[in-house]
Amino acid sequence: MPAQVGLLAGRAIKRILRNPAQMIFPILFPLILLAVNASGLDAATSLPGFPSDSYLDFALAIPFMQGALFAALNGGQDLARDIEGGFLDRLAMTPMSGAALLAGQLGGALFMGLISAVLYLVVGLAFGVGIATGFAGALVLLLLSLAVSTAFACFGTFVALRAGTGEAVQGFFPLFFVLLFLSSAFFPRDLIEQDWFRAIATYNPVSYMVEGIRSLVIAGWDGQALAQAFVIAGLAIVGFLALSARALRTRLVRT
Amino acid sequence: MSTLARTRSVALAVAWRNIHNAFKNPAILLPSVMFPLFFFVAFAGGLSGVQNVEDFDFKSGYTSFQFAFVCIQAAAFGGVFTGFSIAADFEFGFARRLLLAAPNRGGIVAGYVIGAMVRAVFVLSIVFAAGLISGMRVDGSLGDLLALLALALAISATSTLWAAGIAMRMRSMQAGPVMQMPVFILLFLAPVYVPLNLVAGWVHDVARYNPFTAALEAARGFVSGEPTKVAITAACLAAMFTLAVGWARGGLHSAERAG
User: Fold this and answer.
1) Which tops the pLDDT comparison, A48 or A24?
2) Using the beta-carbon criterion (under 8 Å), do B53 and A38 form an inter-chain contact?
3) Residue ranges in chain B modelled with pLDDT below 50
4) Which string of DSSP letters, residue by residue, matches A61-128?
5) Residue A253 pLDDT
6) Is residue A44 in some structural domain?
7) For position A80, what pLDDT does the model report?
8) How far apart are CA A185 and CA A182, in angstroms?
9) pLDDT of res. A25
10) Structural domain span for residue A100
11) Which residues in chain A have Cβ-Cβ distances shorter than 8 Å to B45?
């Protein structure tokens, strides 16, 4: 089985590397938004109770989320293309196991997620962001970022397997951007003035993923924030992976 | 039939088709309505605490402050979405038949621009209604609001011409990011969240020379009933519109040469 996973993951990674456009936009766009927001909202750091002196430090968590989203979107679309092009059908006639297929497909998204996370961390450090938890915190940050990428990628895999079209995958992803914008990603929850928005942000699981990553950068070791982020990412991975496995079985039965 | 009459006839036919398609197919119209509404909710709701920053001096409140941005953004992105429709028309072969059939091809571009402007009026009405429902304060007079509408329509026309130039050169839906990204970047390199004097770093330097900054400040002036930078905005938009006309004309020639 590891050999099967390796083969499929290698294929997914090669497919990304051979199409640089698939890498450049997902990596660049979050950085542009970060640069713009860091200047545009820096004045907010003068508000009493704002948890950081620099908005760049505060907002560094956002690219990690966006990078994970784009990686998952690309992974989902690649899988949908495999379904549309008949590759999955041909694969179904080989002894390849379903678990290996899922793990292999996730490999590409994880690769993209890792590359973009490392890049965001390096860019952040280059522009003066200090990681409050030090080197160990940076490693945990990458680990958490990978967990978030995996969670989103599992969702992308599920949609691709369930719907079988790239359009469906594309259509679902704006939902995640809505969730990101309606979270505490851009402003601390306790400083959000509108009660309805604060309520949405509080019930929005994306807020906790962002806050987990952010805590490592600006607050130091915060066990609760980290536990919440890892648990939510973990639950999403388990849930969407189970749904993906079921969708894969259904799809293979259909073929 | 005079040249002008032929152009008008083509323009109205293309505009009608564009509007008809948009209103008949929600998948076309929905993104241009949902995106501005979503940004409005996210920015006015989530970032309203920013108005407590010292030196934030917009008297009508943060919802109105963001409403002006959303108007400009909706108008600009409406043009880009029309560019997507033009690219789709080329991809599915309709645009080539249109080029063959139209006695005056400039009318085709004019038609797309009119269509985009009608769509912009519809989207802006919805955003305005959403703003009023959410308690937005409008201190500007009816004249100010009409001036805001005129400003938004000028931006819509300019961005449609920009997107049309790309769509007619690339003639593929893959041109989408090329149309969208420059508009997105220009918009967000303006003082989106706070007034210009509170924007920090390099974005402040860029924003000072960004024509969208003047347009945004003028829009906010109309909403608050204290029009500002109207002349410079009109001049910037006139220059951008003229350049965009040339750009779209070049795109049309490129599409004609491609056959």
Assistant:
1) A48
2) no
3) none
4) HHHHHHHHHHHHHHHHHHHHHHHHHTHHHHHHTSS--HHHHHHHHHHHHHHHHHHHHHHHHHHHHHTT
5) 67
6) no
7) 84
8) 8
9) 76
10) 2-38+51-254
11) 192, 194, 196-197
Of B45, B185, B198, the CB nearest to A43: B198
| Amino acid (1-letter code) at residue A148 | V
Could you give the number of structural domains in chain A? 1
Range ranked top by mean pLDDT from A74-78, A97-101, A121-125, A156-160:
A121-125
Write down the pLDDT at residue B122.
Answer: 94
The ranges assigned to domains in chain B are 3-258
Q: Tell the residue number behind the tokens 């968590």, with chain if given.
A: A61
Task: Quick: pLDDT tens for B79-114.
Answer: 998 998 898 888 888 888 888 887 788 889 999 999
**Residue bearing tokens 């805590």:** A215
Interface membership of B122 toward A (CB under 8 Å) = no
φ and ψ at A165, to 5 degrees? -135, 150
* Residue B172, both tokens: 């593929």
Residues of chain A with Cβ-Cβ distance to B188 below 8 Å are 32-33, 36, 40
Contact A191 B203 (CB under 8 A): no
| Contact of B1 with B98, CB cutoff 8 Å | no
CA distance A149 to A161: 18
Assigned token pair, B133: 């429902």
**Which phi and psi (to 5°) does residue A66 adopt?**
-65, -40
The helix-helix angle for B176-188 and B142-170 (nearest 10°) equals 140
* pLDDT band for position A148 (cuts 50, 70, 90): very high
CA distance B92 to chain A (A): 17
Model-level ipTM above the cut of 0.85: no
Query: Is the pLDDT at A255 greater than 80, yes or no?
Result: no
Task: Tell me what pLDDT residue A123 has.
Answer: 94
Q: pLDDT of B59-83, one tens digit each?
A: 899 999 999 999 999 999 999 989 9
Is the Cβ of B200 closer than 8 Å to some Cβ of chain A?
A: yes
Task: Tell me the longest C-alpha to C-alpha distance in chain B.
Answer: 63
Cα–chain center distance at A192: 24
Cβ–Cβ contact B208 with A under 8 A:
no
Q: Please report, in angstroms and rounded to a whole number, the separation of the first and last CA atoms in chain A.
A: 23
Contact B34, B126 (CB under 8 A): no
CB B210 within 8 A of CB A47: no
What pTM, to 2 d.p., does this model score? 0.84
Distance CA B41, CA A169 (A): 25
- Reduce the secondary structure of A125-147 to three states and give it as a string: HHCCCCCCCHHHHHHHHHHHHHH
